[in-house]
Design brief:
heterodimer; A: 210 residues; alpha/beta; Rossmann fold; 10-stranded mixed sheet; 6 helices; B: alpha+beta; 4-stranded antiparallel sheet; 3 helices; 4 strands; globular
Chain lengths: 210, 98
C-alpha cells in the first residue's frame, strides 16, 4: 500500500487556499441551507474541510493518512472551528446510509483503478441523502501528466519515480464519468484547464445529485 | 463541556461499521481530555473493534489493519475492553495474537 503519510510529509501542505470549484460549491450549498452535514472525502491537510467549517457547515473529514487528519484537526482547533475526523478507506465508508447532505472529493478519487473508483462512487451514493450533492474532480487524459509511469490497466498508471512513486493515477473521459455516475443526476460536468509553468493542467469537475 | 459531549454524540449518531454497516456501534472511552484521546469502537454484530488513537477513530478494513500496532493497543487496555472482544474480536484478539 502506498504510504500517503510519507508522501504528504514530503510534499507538504502548502496549498492553503480552497479550490475555486469548492468555494463555488459551498456557495451553492449555502443557498439551500446552512444546516448541512458535509463530508470531505480525502481531506488531506484540510484546506477544503476548514473552508466548509468556516461557512458554518457541520464537517466531517476522512483520509487514509493520519498525518493529514491530525494536521486538519490542529488547524480546525487553532481557528476555533468544529469538525469530525475519521481514518478510513474510501471503499469502506464508516457511516450509516443517507446521512450526508453533500460530499466533496477533490484530488482523491483518481488515485486508484477504475474498479476502485466504482466502489467509492457506490459508497458515496449510499451515504448521501436524497437529492444530496457531490463535487468531485477527475484527471483528464489531456493533462500534462497523462501516461506518466507504467500502465497497470486501461487509463490507470503507476508512478515509477519521484515524490509519488507507487501512486496510481486514473485518467477519465467524459463518457466514463457519465457511466460512473449513471445512478446520479448530473448537475454539471465541465473540463477545467489551465497552463501551469507551460504545462496544461486538465481536470473534469463534476457536480452530481442523488 | 456540553458542546463537546454533543459533538461526540453527533459522530456516534452516524458512525457505522465499515464492513457490515451495522449501527449503532459501542463506544468505550479509556482516556479523555478535551476529547476522547484513546478508546475503542465496537461493532456488536461482527465483533470488529476499531481503536481511537490521538483523538481520531481508525475505522479501517481488515486488510489495512496492522497487527503489530493493534495488538499492543488491545493489551494495553485489556482491563477496560469487553471480554468478548479480547477473546473473539476481529481482526485481532488476545487469544489469536502472538
Amino acid at each position: 500500500m502506498v504510504e500517503w503519510n510519507q508522501i504528504l510529509c514530503k510534499r507538504g501542505y502548502s496549498i492553503e487556499e480552497p479550490d475555486d470549484a469548492v468555494v463555488n460549491f459551498a456557495a451553492l450549498l449555502r443557498k439551500k441551507s446552512k444546516e448541512m452535514r458535509i463530508l470531505d472525502l480525502g481531506c488531506g491537510g484540510g484546506r477544503h474541510q476548514i473552508y466548509m467549517a468556516r461557512q458554518g457547515f457541520e464537517t466531517h473529514g476522512i483520509d487514509i493518512s493520519k498525518t493529514g487528519l491530525k494536521l486538519t484537526k490542529d488547524r480546525l482547533e487553532k481557528q476555533r472551528l468544529a469538525g469530525h475526523m475519521v481514518k478510513c478507506d474510501m471503499h469502506f465508508l464508516p457511516y450509516v446510509d443517507f446521512c450526508f447532505d453533500a460530499v466533496v472529493c477533490f484530488q482523491t478519487i483518481y488515485h486508484q483503478g477504475l474498479s476502485g473508483i466504482q466502489g467509492t462512487v457506490s459508497e458515496v451514493h449510499r451515504i448521501l441523502r436524497k437529492e444530496g450533492l457531490i463535487l468531485v474532480n477527475f484527471l483528464s487524459n489531456r493533462t500534462y501528466s497523462y501516461a506518466i509511469g507504467a500502465e497497470v490497466e486501461g487509463g490507470t498508471f503507476v508512478r515509477e519515480e519521484g515524490a509519488e512513486k507507487g501512486v496510481l493515477h486514473h485518467f477519465s473521459d467524459k463518457e466514463e464519468i457519465e457511466q460512473l455516475f449513471k445512478r446520479f443526476k448530473i448537475v454539471s460536468l465541465r473540463l477545467h484547464e489551465k497552463e501551469v509553468e507551460g504545462a496544461l493542467q486538465s481536470r473534469w469537475i463534476l457536480i452530481a445529485k442523488t | 463541556m456540553a458542546e463537546r459531549i454533543n459533538i461526540k454524540k453527533r459522530l456516534m449518531d452516524i458512525l457505522a461499521c465499515p464492513i457490515d454497516k451495522y449501527h449503532p456501534l459501542e463506544l468505550h472511552i479509556f482516556e479523555e481530555k478535551d476529547e476522547i484521546v484513546e478508546g475503542i469502537i465496537i461493532c456488536p454484530k461482527c465483533l470488529r473493534w476499531y481503536p481511537i488513537r490521538d483523538e481520531i477513530p481508525e475505522m479501517l478494513p481488515d486488510e489495512l489493519r496492522k497487527e503489530k500496532e493493534d495488538l499492543p493497543f488491545l493489551k494495553k487496555w485489556k482491563n477496560k475492553i469487553p471480554e468478548k472482544i479480547l477473546s473473539e474480536g476481529k481482526p485481532f484478539n488476545v487469544k489469536s495474537g502472538t
